[in-house]
Design a protein that fits this description.
The complex is a heterodimer of chains A (888) and B (113). By secondary structure, chain A is of the alpha+beta class. In chain A, strand 18 and strand 19 form a beta hairpin. The two termini of chain A are 59 Å apart. With 113 residues, chain B is α+β, with helices and mostly antiparallel strands. Chain B has a single domain, classed as Arc Repressor Mutant, subunit A (Orthogonal Bundle). Helix content of chain B is 51%, strand content 18%. Chain B contains four helices and five strands; from the N terminus they run βαβαβαββα. In chain B, the strands form two sheets. Chain B has a three-stranded antiparallel sheet with strand order 2-5-4. In chain B, strands 1-3 form a two-stranded parallel sheet. The relative contact order of chain B is 0.16. Classes of the chains: A alpha+beta (888), B alpha+beta (113).
């Protein structure tokens, strides 16, 4: 039974009891009234006046309320009634101490909110399978370190030779321009094998899907299936879109169907706009990738349902046997790589996503722990305050059970309030995250919908943590000796022994110090990675990504077109340098290619015997000037280094050092590419970052893009001009050359923000958690300080009356709180430093052994202490001993 | 009032059943009837009647229904159900056995032991 239906049913039965009770209550009241009237009639007949008769009748009747209660009990259904009564009473008690109620609810809200958001991420991104039928036995293959990447011929062998999968489908991402007859726009799709939808066991929402029978050789299936969301935004949900012909990169494709609404493709973070048959891949990629066994760019991921009874381990052994066969049979193209079977959807994001969410969970858990400590000390302080009340109630004959039940009801109320508010906040946040589009144009899709699991976890955490600490005062009630407490009064000093409250406060402050430490470490890491040398100068640089294939150019036309584009951009006033790099420049869209290289005299060109695996860029002359990369030695590429000329390369310092020992000795030397080409090194440039900012000492080589062309190029434009004006000038210049050219201009710094995205998110998350920790410790210290001041008002008043100085008063009032704060901070700082290993998973360059961080934490905790004790200190100082002593 | 006896715990139900067995009655009527048949010797606190009445209704021994009293007041009348009649017979027998046993026990003389 699902929890919603269950809770609805529960509410209905409670409500039914409630209403039935009120019916019988009316019934009963009328009956009792009638009884009194009858008696009054008799009395009146015996000679009394009517008012006197009624008064007597009521007196004779006895305790009306008592009998009414007893009658209710006789009726049964009393448990709910007395529970509601208990609830009303507890709510009244809590209303009387709004400070306590607010602090407790706020604490829980923070903790539950943070944990629900993190659990929502875990649930949406990692725990929940893809939204397709029978997703539980859907597995994808990872191939060596290249994640899911694969060649198409390898995929075919995998599909045909595997015995453990029912069928294997595969897809790759394609980035295209789609022209529906008006303005061409970029649209991202999945080029999928014919069996893609049948493997996923999906039915079309409209029209039909393409299938295996459509695959009849290269470019034989010019059909696309639209994703439901894209059909809505681009085609306004018009059913007549089926059958329409659209242009993908200037090739006609017919829309044959729409995918079901809940299906966002087979990747967790990216939702495609459409699906097309992979046999037509050459039309949109500008080149055929399907017949080359050595490329790993043809397939993004291969996946399928396991046959019934086949375990993932058996499937793994099976595909690895095929992998070994591939390496034996095609030694030139396929290295010996290990296959890993994993859940479809996360593939290459699996490890980083798990590490990130795991790290967040750890920190959110710490928040919960700190909140629990905070709740514990709140409840303990309250218990101490109420000991007199509890003692009085015990002395007056109330049962211990009843008092404990009241305390637990209060705790449950607080849990419920905190849980619900925290949950509401987290639902709001998760909804925002789900529709978050941090990068225009990138089809990011985070499927985090706050489901019932999130709600259950949040309420469960709230109840457990509140009930756990609601128990703190219970111990006291059960032990209490009413006579002692009533006699001693509440102003009894607790003595100097260490109380549970002290321990909890130190624990809480320690945890908060850990959180503050980690958020400072994260921020420092981010600042550092922003200032680390990256081998380019992104300021005053514009990157113009031009997809020539999407715009309808063939590979052979690219070099000439590239020259025209460079010339056009150079003619813009204020432009200093223009260079070109194939595909994307370093640090854009975390897209970079590595290539195997071999010694000059090597004849064994199998991937396994490569000497290095540097990043490979294909660039035009003047690229380094435009990118702001410094030359260490040698010359730049020149326009005469084209197809007919000998192959030349510029390498970075790390490449030169690894291969030849030093920069000067590398100049003029040769090495070999995978395809056997001998390349001469003509120049050496400084090191840089290529794929991501976490690259350390990565080798890189830069070949002439006149010798190897690509369908997509990025133009690097260096200019001091204002980026917006420059963008406009670039657009108008390029439109002059070809009005249908698809370009995407932006500053290099903006593109860098994509690379910095994980670090930004991590810093943001840690920052928020650190803030929460700080807020929790403020409430904790404040509570403790305010409590100790109010407990000792009389003592402080006497001290002031006897002429104590301000410093002495403060010391007496707050000394203990500040000592505990210092103790907790030191403990937290040490723990935070020790926890740095965990942080380094999440944050780049995380090092808490950094004087700035250490000083920052100490300063932050001192500030927190100051803020939190300010109001209690003011209260202690502004005491008027006369008023105080008179009152007590 | 001194000559009125407090009723024994558990006997109120039996008295109510007895009163109602003589004809349908409302709450106040039951009190009057008990007073009448016991010769005003048994004291029942007026309010204490109702918890017992509701208990008997819940056990299915009495059936309540709204009607009009002699002096034209709306009142709730109670009558015995079949189960109520059966219970009344059993309890009466039980009480008689107990009373007989009690009185013979209390009447015992030293020479009889």
């Amino acid at each position: 039974m699902n929890p919603l239906a269950w809770s609805l049913g529960w509410f209905r039965s409670v409500a039914a009891k409630f209403f039935r009770r009120s019916e019988t209550a009316d019934d009963m009241a009328e009956e009792l009234r009638s009884h009194i009237q009858c008696r009054a009639d008799d009395l009146e007949r015996s000679g009394l006046s009517r008012p006197e008769a009624e008064r007597r009748a009521r007196i004779e009747f006895g305790g009306y309320e008592k009998f009414r209660e007893q009658t209710h009990e006789a009726l049964g259904g009393n448990r709910i009634e007395s529970f509601l009564h208990e609830l009303r009473f507890s709510a009244r008690v809590l209303r009387k101490s709004p400070g306590f109620a607010f602090a407790a609810v706020a604490t829980l809200t923070l903790a539950i909110g943070a944990n629900a958001v993190v659990f929502g991420l875990l649930d949406g991104l990692i725990l929940r399978p893809l939204n397709v039928p029978h997703a539980e036995d859907l597995y994808g293959t990872e191939y060596g370190a290249d994640a899911g990447f694969q060649s198409y011929p390898n995929y075919l062998d995998l599909r045909d030779r595997s015995h453990s999968f029912q069928d294997l489908a595969a897809f790759k991402m394609v980035f295209t321009g789609m022209d529906t007859g008006g303005d061409p726009q970029s649209a991202n799709g999945f080029a999928a094998t014919g069996n893609y939808f049948s493997v996923l066991q999906l039915q079309p929402y409209l029209g039909r899907f393409f299938d295996v029978s459509d695959e009849r050789g290269p470019n034989s299936a010019p059909y696309i299936v639209l994703a439901h969301a894209y059909w809505h935004t681009r085609f306004h949900g018009d059913p007549r879109a089926i059958g329409r012909v659209v242009q993908l990169d200037r090739h006609p494709f017919t829309i044959i169907g729409v995918a079901p609404p809940g299906f966002h493709g087979t990747l967790m973070f990216i939702s495609p706009d459409y699906f097309m048959p992979i046999v037509n891949q050459a039309q949109v990629d500008g080149g055929d990738l399907l017949h080359d066994r050595s490329t790993i760019q043809a397939i993004f991921e291969t996946f399928g349902h396991l046959r019934p009874g086949v375990s993932p381990e058996q499937a793994s052994a099976d595909v690895n046997a095929i992998g070994a066969w591939l390496a034996r049979t095609y030694p030139k193209e396929c290295g010996q790589k290990h296959f890993v079977i994993g859940r479809t959807g996360l593939t290459s994001f699996n490890t980083p996503a798990k590490e990130f969410v795991g790290g967040l969970m750890l920190l959110a858990g710490l928040i919960l722990l700190a909140a629990c400590a905070n709740l514990g000390s709140l409840f303990a302080a309250r218990a101490a305050d109420r000991s007199r009340e509890v003692a009085l109630r015990l002395a007056l004959g109330s049962s211990r059970r009843r008092i404990v039940r009241g305390l637990l009801t209060e705790a449950a109320l607080i849990a419920l309030a905190g849980g619900i508010v925290g949950l509401a906040a987290s639902v709001f946040l998760l909804r925002r995250i789900a529709v978050w589009q941090p990068f225009p144009g990138a089809p990011l899709h985070l499927p985090v919908t706050p489901g019932p699991a999130v709600i259950l976890v949040a309420l469960f955490l709230a109840l457990v943590s509140a009930l756990l600490f609601g128990m703190v005062p219970v111990r006291q009630v059960l032990r209490a000796n009413p006579w002692e407490i009533v006699k001693a009064g509440s102003s009894r000093r607790a003595g100097r022994r260490v109380t549970l409250r002290d321990v909890l406060l130190v624990l809480q402050i320690a945890i908060c110090a850990v959180l503050v430490t980690s958020s400072l470490v994260a921020i420092r890491g981010l600042v550092r990675s922003l200032h680390a040398p990256i081998g380019i100068e992104p300021r005053n640089t514009m990157v113009v990504i031009a997809n020539l294939a999407e715009s309808g150019y063939t590979i052979d036309q690219v070099p000439a077109m590239q020259k025209r584009l460079i010339a056009a951009l150079k003619s813009i006033p204020g432009v200093e340098h223009v260079g070109v790099v194939n595909n994307y420049p370093p640090l854009v869209y975390t897209a970079a290619f590595r290539a195997n290289i071999f010694k000059e005299d090597s004849t064994d060109l199998r991937p396994g015997s490569a000497v290095a695996n540097p990043f490979r860029y294909d660039i035009s002359p003047e690229y380094f000037a435009a990118a702001g990369t410094a030359f260490l030695s040698g010359r730049d590429l020149a326009w005469h280094d084209d197809k007919g000329a000998p192959a030349v390369a510029i390498v970075n310092r790390q490449f030169a050092v690894t291969m030849f020992g030093s920069v000067p000795s590398a100049l003029g030397r040769y090495y070999k590419l995978q395809d056997g080409t001998r390349v001469q090194i003509v120049g050496v440039v400084e090191d840089g970052k290529y794929l991501s900012l976490t690259d350390y000492d990565a080798p890189a080589m830069f070949l002439s893009n006149l010798q190897s062309t690509a369908p997509q190029i990025s133009l690097i434009v260096r200019s001091q001009r204002d980026p917006q004006q420059l963008t406009a000038a670039i657009r108008s210049k390029l439109r002059g050359i070809d009005s249908g050219l698809l370009i995407q201009p932006d500053t290099w710094n903006n593109f860098l923000s994509v690379v910095l995205f994980p670090a930004h998110v991590a810093t943001m998350a840690l920052g928020v958690l650190g803030m929460m920790g700080a807020m929790l410790s403020i409430t904790g210290i404040f509570g403790m300080a305010a409590y100790s001041v109010s407990k000792r008002l009389r003592e402080l008043g006497i001290r002031i009356a006897l002429g104590a100085q301000r410093r002495e008063v403060l010391e007496a009032a707050l000394g203990r709180a500040l000592k505990l704060l210092a103790l907790g901070s030191v403990a937290g700082l040490i723990l935070g430093v020790l926890a740095s290993r965990v942080l380094s998973y999440i944050v780049y360059q995380a090092s808490p052994r950094d004087p700035v961080v250490l000083a920052g934490v100490v300063l932050a905790m001192a500030l927190l202490g100051l803020v939190a004790t300010w109001i209690p200190a003011q209260r202690a100082l502004s005491l008027d001993p006369l008023v105080l002593l008179r009152e007590e | 009032m001194a000559d009125q006896a407090q009723i024994l715990p558990g006997t109120l139900d039996l008295l109510i059943l007895k009163a109602v067995s003589l004809g349908p009655l409302h709450g106040y009527g039951i009190l009057l009837r008990i007073g009448q048949i016991s010769g005003s010797a048994l004291l029942i606190e007026q309010g204490a009647l109702y918890p017992a009445l509701f208990r008997l209704v819940r056990q299915g021994l009495l059936k309540p229904s709204w009607g009009t009293s002699d002096n034209n007041r709306r009142a709730k009348f109670y009558e015995l159900t079949a189960a109520g009649r059966k219970r009344f017979r059993e309890e009466t027998e039980g009480w008689n056995r107990l009373a007989a046993a009690m009185s013979s026990a209390l009447a015992a003389q030293p020479e009889e032991v």
